[in-house]
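Technical annex, item 7. During the second reporting period the consortium partners agreed on a shared format for inverse folding records so that results from different sites could be compared directly. Each record opens with the tokenized structure and is followed by the designed sequence. A conforming record, contributed by the partner at site C, is shown below for reference.
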């Protein structure tokens, strides 16, 4: 069994520029020993650049990278003791699985017997001991990515780096392998940075999620906190689905279509604002004879998603998305007249003026 204790990783005020474009704008992040942090954000937000600076694949224009208390900022990749898994499997087609896994050990001058022993251990860890003698073209995409993971772990790195490792796989395999990566990471206890643009992946796999925009961390925290208490409007809109409803802030709450909702940040100045309301905070009540009102509308569509469904309701001047158990949603087919109820969860508000945006 591959075992090791995790190490602390610190990215300190990292800056990276490409010409006139700033990819990282003073990024600071500390990953605790054995922790899995997922960096989440849209293309161009700087998440992969942060990973590449930690790996030593690029040089920072400013700041430091510290691993296990040692400044590795100026060290090349082969002296940083990191394992890397990318979207592309990059397996050698002329080598069987265990030979692919052992390749990094060969580069480190590990003896033949020890090399094979550690490669087979790593394959067992990822559940592929039975395919140790298969070539890449004899394995599925999910199996090939597991081999790539085993290859990264076989060198016994201090830090594991995963850059969009699941995006080339279909949804079912992706979900299964995501859970396997988490199981292995917990079993091995390795400090891990996982980069993805898939919010479901990040929320499901990480101890903490860092949401990035324009080279900066907008929020860093446990998945439940990032989802239920987003720090900024960007986080609220990027992580999960969000209804944007016109309202008026007054006295520490916001009035939305006749309903008073508490604010995540109650010290915001009074005045018009857009409230960001999660679909699961919206409930439907069937009211075929309902009088007209700001929360009365007509069901446009019902999207079945398995255990839950998403219902789109036309309120005349806007549409609202509600998410609920499928058993409840099935009572409101398209064309049904309904009244909405808004749960009194604290909400973020957004305004046009940058000065009053949540920070």
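Designed sequence (site C submission):
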């Amino acid at each position: 069994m591959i075992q090791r204790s995790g190490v602390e990783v610190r990215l300190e005020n990292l800056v990276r520029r490409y010409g006139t474009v700033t990819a990282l704008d003073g990024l600071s992040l500390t990953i605790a020993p054995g922790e899995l942090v997922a960096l989440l954000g849209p293309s161009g937000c700087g998440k992969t650049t942060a990973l590449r600076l930690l790996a030593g694949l690029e040089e920072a224009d400013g700041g430091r990278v510290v691993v296990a208390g040692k400044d590795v900022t100026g060290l090349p990749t082969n002296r940083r003791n990191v394992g890397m898994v990318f979207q592309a499997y990059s397996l050698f087609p002329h080598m069987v699985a265990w030979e692919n896994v052992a390749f990094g050990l060969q580069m480190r001058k590990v003896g033949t017997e020890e090399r094979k022993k550690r490669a087979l251990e790593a394959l067992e860890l990822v559940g592929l001991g039975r395919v140790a003698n298969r070539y890449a073209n004899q394995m599925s995409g999910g199996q090939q990515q597991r081999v790539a993971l085993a290859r990264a772990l076989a060198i016994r790195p201090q830090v594991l780096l995963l850059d969009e490792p699941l995006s080339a796989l279909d949804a079912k395999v992706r979900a299964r392998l995501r859970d396997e990566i988490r199981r292995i990471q917990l079993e091995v206890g390795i400090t891990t940075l996982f980069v993805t643009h898939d919010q479901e992946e990040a929320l499901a796999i990480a101890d903490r999620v860092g949401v990035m925009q324009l080279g900066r961390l907008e929020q860093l925290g446990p998945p439940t906190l990032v989802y239920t208490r987003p720090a900024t409007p960007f986080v609220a809109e990027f992580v999960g689905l969000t209804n944007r409803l016109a309202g008026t802030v007054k006295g520490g709450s916001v009035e939305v279509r006749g309903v008073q909702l508490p604010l995540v940040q109650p010290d915001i100045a009074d005045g018009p604002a857009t409230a960001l309301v999660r679909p699961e905070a919206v409930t439907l009540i069937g009211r075929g004879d309902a009088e007209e009102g700001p929360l009365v509308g007509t069901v446009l569509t019902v999207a079945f998603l398995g255990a839950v469904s998403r219902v789109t309701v036309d309120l005349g001047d806007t549409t609202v998305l509600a998410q609920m158990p499928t058993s409840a949603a099935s009572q409101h087919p398209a064309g049904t007249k309904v009244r909405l109820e808004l749960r009194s969860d604290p909400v973020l508000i957004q305004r046009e003026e940058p000065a009053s945006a949540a920070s």
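The two ends are 45 Å apart (CA to CA). Residues 353-359 have pLDDT under 50 and may be disordered. All partners now use this format for quarterly exchanges.
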